[in-house]
Structures are given as structure tokens and as C-alpha cells.
Amino acid sequence: MSDNENAGRRDLRMPDDDEEFAVVQDMLGANRVKVRCADGVERTARIPGRMQKRIWIREGDVVLVEPWDWQDEKADVTWRYEKSEADQLREEGHIA
Q1: Which tens digit of pLDDT belongs to each residue from 80-94?
Q2: What pLDDT was estimated at residue 87?
Q3: Residue 32, CB half-sphere, CA atoms under 13 Å: how many?
Q4: Which pLDDT score, from 0 to 100, does residue 8 have?
Q5: pLDDT confidence of residue 72
């Protein structure tokens, strides 16, 4: 890559082994959101207390979620990407 192509690129947080990309579909209230995960499963995701006051999550946001081991239809939100970061992930083919 030339410097011009790489100029706007940032190193983004990528999912760990137990995390995956998801897009927020709906706000459910009570610190919960409905997300569509990269594996095609729709899950109810919980926004943990450490994120509630600091990070605003809206419909259409790209987030990282960690699906629960014992209940596959639920997950925890672990990270939210800014719009520019989500655009970069789409350009690089990480998310659809």
C-alpha cells in the first residue's frame, strides 16, 4: 500500500476468539439492544454498566458482542465502533 492509501487507515480493535461483529437492530430499553450478529443470529445484547454512561449506542451502530456460553440467543456488548471505523471495517471486508 502506498502512503496515500494508508493515510486514513487506523488500527481498529478486532474481535477476540469469543467475540463477533454485530449491528444494532433495535433499542429494547433496560440497557438491552437487539443485534444481528455476523453469524446471522439475532440476539438480545446487554449493555454493561461500564459502557452505559460513557458510550451512546444507537440503531445501526456496529458493535462487538460476546455471545453467552449457556444461552446462545443472548450476548454482552463489549465495544462500539465510531461511524468512520465501521466504514473502514466495511471497506476491508470484515463486515457486510
Answers
A1: 999 999 999 888 887
A2: 92
A3: 10
A4: 55
A5: 79
- Is 90 strand, coil or helix? helix
Residue 34 contacts residue 46 (beta carbons within 8 Å): no
Q: How many CB atoms lie within 10 A of CB 78?
A: 17
pLDDT at 21: 93
Amino acid at 95: I
Grid cell locating 4: 496515500
Please give the domain boundaries of the chain with CATH numbers for all domains: 12-91 (2.40.50.140)
Q: Which residues does the chain have with pLDDT short of 70?
A: 1-10
Buried b / exposed e along 79-96 (16+ C-beta atoms within 10 A)? bbbeeeebebbeeeeeee
Owner of C-alpha cell 473502514: 88
Residue type, 67: P
> Which grid coordinates belong to 10?
487506523
CA angle in degrees (0–180, nearest 5) for 80-58-75: 55
